[in-house]
Amino acid sequence: MLVRTRKGWEIPEREATPEGIFADRRRILAAMGFGLADVLRGADARPLYPARRNPEFTLDRPVTEEWAATGYNNFYEFHPTNKSAVRDMVGKFKPRPWTVEVSGLVGKPRTFDVEELERAMPLEERLYRFRCVEAWSMAVPWTGFPLAELIKKVEPKPEAQYLRFVSAARKEEMPGIRMAPWYPWPYYEGLRMDEAMNPLTLVVTGIYGKTLPAQNGAPVRIVAPWKYGFKSPKSIVRIEFTAKRPATFWNDTVPTQYGFFSNVNPKKPHPNWSQAHEKVIPGGELRPTLLYNGYEKWVAPMYTGKEY
Ligand SMILES: Nc1nc2c(c(=O)[nH]1)N[C@H]1C(S)=C(S)[C@@H](COP(=O)(O)O)O[C@H]1N2
Ligand SMILES: [Mo]
Fold first, then answer.
1. If I label 36, which of 11, 91, 199, 247 is the partner at 20 to 30 A Cα–Cα?
2. How far, in Å, CA of 185 to CA of 130, rounded?
3. Is 5 part of a structural domain of the chain?
4. Are residues 139 and 33 in the same domain?
5. 232 within ligand 1 shell (Cβ under 6 A)
6. Whose C-alpha lies nearest to ligand 1, atom 19?
7. Is 74 close to ligand 1, i.e. is its CB under 6 Å away?
8. pTM for this one?
């Protein structure tokens, strides 16, 4: 999509400001990381994207080109079969304004406005490997904040053992729902409390240093990079804290596949294919699949002596 943004020099303000002073001010504000749009919004507005990159998360491969990560998507609500068509089906989707309701076994249930969250939370960029259960992978620069930070705000009760996430299901805006009405919409997923609190688990609002596009789950999604991609629900509208392990969309739809945990594991084949290797998108280079998608150091202690 070609959206032309007005450049600073096209804004009539320069007519009202002596040339030299304006050039200086623009240079100073640019050095501070402010754009003209931020200045016009108010003195305390800070630019949210791109966010500072957290250097702790390094990759063993190049970052996927943006056109590929935003042009090859699993988002069945927009197109249930064609990953390359998803980005062309999002025209009616209105991701803002948007709220996320947080409820269930918490002391302080709350409804969060996404734009307020973006401003209130410590946004950072992280480079994560991303592995779909279909044996393809990408490496994505996500922008977001630890889910743990959101969880702390609502004060979970001791009985809260799991989180259940629910995605939007808007028939009018999401043509895939009309194309595939047999699925149990809305999409729903879950994490165990320790998985949700793990420092790797992100609430994501951006990629490639920009606001998240619709096809990648605008305006807000979850990313748990040691699990297959379907454990990272997009366009979420609700988070519920529960005592019992919640049912999940794909486990209910195809119970013969992976269970609740669905951690990336090269030794645990899918019923129809091996998970030993993955095809890197784009190009299709084959790489060995890493246990926990390479995040063993962060997550293995959660599973010692237990199921993967
Ligand atoms: N609501 C919703 N979330 C979803 C999906 C979906 O179809 N609907 N697909 C999942 C799957 S299978 C994958 S691989 C990732 C894809 O994320 P991406 O398009 O940003 O790479 O989103 C996951 N989250
Ligand atoms: Mo996936």
1. 91
2. 24
3. no
4. no
5. yes
6. 73
7. yes
8. 0.87
